[in-house]
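Entry 14. Structure prediction run on the chain below.
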Amino acid sequence: MNQFISLAAGAIVKNISSDLVKKTVLPIPALTEQQAIVIKLNVLSAETKRLEAIYQQKLINLEELKKSVLQKAFSGEL
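Output returned:
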């Protein structure tokens, strides 16, 4: 991004030409580092899905508890 900012032309509105974009150097990590990143992202994705499942189950449990409390309240058990 800094490459674009430093190369952009124009005083009020900065313009970026396609030539500038073509000249941009994009650092690409080595293949082993890319593979390590993929592994980390897969682990994070699995953990996120696990936590989402736990959260959904807790929502279901709370809804059941709410229904149970309401039923007891209306039947005079509370």
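The chain has three helices and no strands.
Filed with the rest of this week's runs.
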